Amino acid sequence: MTVNFQYVNTDVSETLSAITTEKLEKLVKKNEFLISAQVYFKHDDKDYNAGKICKIELSLPGPRIFATSNEKNYEMAVNKTISDLEKQLNKRKETYKTF
């Protein structure tokens, strides 16, 4: 699976990219039909309580799956976003099983 990272209003972090790639690889092991992922990390200066935004868009057969989260730090945002994507992928698997 191809993973593309974009950092908006924040510095590029190899560690954050590695953590995210590792978590996405776990999704690929469970869902072999994933093609690629677009990962966006953004810092929102206006949000003082959170402001660390992670958006992930997965490309797979059928409509794309998208999730986003806004947390206190990027690792929490990645975990929340991956969790949301897992739920969506499980629903997608159920629809594939019915056909």
TrEMBL record:
User: What gene, per UniProt, encodes this protein?
Assistant: raiA
Query: Can you say what this protein is called?
Result: Ribosome-associated translation inhibitor RaiA
**Gene3D superfamilies per record:** Ribosome hibernation promotion factor-like
**Which InterPro entries does this entry report, sorted A to Z?**
RHF-like (IPR036567), RHF/RaiA (IPR003489)
Q: Give the domain of life.
A: Bacteria
User: Which species does this protein come from?
Assistant: Winogradskyella endarachnes
Q: Which residues form the signal peptide?
A: none
Record Pfam families? Ribosomal_S30AE
